[in-house]
Specification:
Pfam families: ABC_tran. The protein is of the alpha/beta class and 263 residues long. It contains 9 helices and 10 strands. The structure holds adenosine-5'-diphosphate.
């Protein structure tokens, strides 16, 4: 399903970014994990976050999904349809409104172990979004078919490979019809031979026009799929740019060192 097929999730018209993040800051105790993170993301674009472990990438994603509450900064979705200033009190309703706009794909899949594949995918649409079971199941099956897992509909997560589990994780996120797909190192728990099947699905979603924020160490994927790459270190964006430029001609010493270690 392409993002625009969803009736309540039409693209944002004009030049308003789908996502606008300004001055995001977060500390855990006296550890400043994010310091003034700024970026925008247009509808249908893919933003990739790279950086060393502990640089704050996951905290950025979790802040976008309402799983983490930043100390300061603003997040605006769809030209202010959801607008949050974290410097002030944020109501539970506002946090839920933010969460409703995005869906997260986790490093460790986070499937419900006691539910079948089909139940994992339809749980959110049926229980949270109150969609009709028949519709939710039909859409889930169509999505599972697309990632080659229709025959696993009644399997439990423990019966699947990591790559299959993560493809279910992606289908589960897409089935929520979010405006924004968030990926938190989706392939870093996988055996190397299973990484490709997950990246292929992600690439197809990008080509279909999904708006995506991806935390990954897969630089080849980033280079092919990202519209923009942010390099984070120590909770700040050290460098940003188109992947072609950032990977071939980084301007910052820290970026060069990081890339040299990975390439
Ligand atoms: P990355 O995704 O780049 O590896 P994270 O956003 O996961 O980085 O973490 C950034 C820093 O914040 C790390 O030093 C991490 O230990 C710390 N951190 C993350 N979550 C918590 C938490 N709930 N409590 C305390 N420290 C945390």
């Amino acid at each position: 399903m392409s993002p625009t097929e969803s009736p309540s999730r039409a693209s944002t018209p004009g030049s308003t970014p789908l996502l606008e993040v300004r001055g995001l800051a977060k500390s855990f105790g006296d550890h400043e994990v994010l310091r003034s993170i700024d970026f925008t993301l247009d509808t249908g674009k893919v933003l990739v976050l790279i950086g060393p472990s502990g640089s704050g990438k996951t905290t950025v994603l979790r802040s976008l999904n309402g799983l983490e509450q930043p100390d300061a900064g603003t997040v605006s979705v769809a030209g202010g349809e959801v607008a949050i200033d974290f410097a002030g009190p944020v109501s539970a309703a506002t946090r839920l409104a933010l969460r409703d706009r995005s869906a997260m794909v986790f490093q460790h899949y986070n499937l419900f172990p006691h539910l079948t594949v089909l139940q994992n995918v339809t749980e959110g649409p049926i229980v949270v979004q109150k969609r009709a079971r028949a519709d939710a199941e039909a859409e889930a099956m169509a999505l599972l078919e697309r990632v080659g897992l229709a025959d696993k509909r009644d399997a439990f997560p423990f019966e699947l490979s990591g790559g299959q589990q993560q493809r279910v994780g992606i289908v589960r996120a897409v089935a929520l019809r979010p405006q924004l797909l968030l990926f938190d190192e989706p392939t870093s728990s996988l055996d190397p031979e299973l990484v490709g099947e997950v990246l292929t699905v992600m690439k197809e979603l990008a080509e279909e026009g999904w708006t995506m924020v991806v935390v990954t160490h897969e630089l080849v994927f980033a280079r092919e799929v990202a519209d923009e790459v942010l390099f984070l270190d120590g909770g700040v964006i050290v460098e940003r740019g188109a992947p072609e430029r950032l990977f071939t001609a980084p301007t910052q010493e820290r970026t060069k060192q990081f890339l040299n270690r990975l390439l």
